[in-house]
Amino acid sequence: MAHSLHSLHRKQPHRLTLRYRLYKRTADVVLSLLALLLAAPLLAVCMAWIYLIDGGPVLYFQWRVGRDGWLFEMCKLRTMSRDAETQGIRFAQRRDPRVLRGCSWMRRSHVDELPQLLSVLTGKMSLVGPRPERPEVIERYRNLLPQFEHRLEARPGLTGLAQVRHGYANDLDGMQRKLNYDLEYLCRRSVRGELRLMLATIPKLWDRAAC
Questions:
Q1: pLDDT one-digit tens code per residue, 146-181
Q2: Are 10 and 152 in contact (CB under 8 A)?
Q3: Cis peptide before 57 (omega within 30 of 0)
Q4: Are the CB atoms for 36 and 114 separated by under 8 Å?
Q5: Along the chain (211 residues), what's the average pLDDT of each consecutive run of 10 residues?
Q6: 3 forms bridges with which residues in the sheet?
């Protein structure tokens, strides 16, 4: 069951055409289901490897902030040790010792994020939209970056303009640049734009900068 992050600012989303909303939800359901079916053998191999070298669980669940500030549980393949965050939230670093042996390629290829397609199927996420952030990240930047909460006007996405143009960000300057891209996406949402972003994601699937 979802929970609301009550302290977040509520703002009416931009008006979207019925054609856009129907297209977006249809594309989310059809493409995520197809991707899950095609990726099922690869996911099975990855989960077996994780279990073999570090035991269960093979999935990692995190609370993320969705549209309008509602919280949802998002799952990924667990590519880090089970005690990776016993000392609190830490951003991944290059050659992070917490990453399990033989799992770095899963992170660089974003294979570890494929289970998020389940959140797309259930309507908590979309294929395209702002990156889903942790509640702690929202709280950290909501007072530092004006309009940061406007990102919550849309369902968070597996990919998006900020992810394609900028990639990961662990500092204030990077988050500001990503915010600018997110706001640009929100102001220009269209069927054609969604298609372009999905196509632009393909060359980004292998990310050498991913930790």
A1: 899 999 999 999 999 999 998 777 788 999 999 999
A2: no
A3: yes
A4: yes
A5: 43 70 96 96 97 92 94 94 71 76 92 96 96 92 90 95 85 91 94 94 79 55
A6: 71
The whole-angstrom separation of Cα 169 and Cα 197 is 19
Helices marked H in 8-72 — which ranges? 18-54
> CA-to-CA distance for 168 and 78, rounded, in angstroms?
19
Please name the residue that has the structure tokens 């990310």: 207
Do 12 and 180 meet the contact criterion of CB atoms below 8 Å apart? no
Q: How far apart are CA 207 and CA 174, in angstroms?
A: 17
The span from the CA of 194 to the CA of 127, in Å, is: 9
Residue ranges per structural domain of the chain: 35-204
pTM equals: 0.85
Reported for 57-64, long-range contacts at CB under 8 A and 24+ positions apart, including other chains, are 59/115, 62/134, 63/134, 63/135, 64/132, 64/133, 64/134, 64/135, 64/156
**Taking the CA atoms of the chain, what radius of gyration do you get in angstroms?**
17
Q: Are 77 and 46 in contact (CB under 8 A)?
A: yes
> Are β-strands 126-128 and 157-159 bridged in parallel, bridged antiparallel, or unpaired?
parallel
* Contact assessment for residue 39 and residue 91, using Cβ atoms and an 8 Å cutoff: no
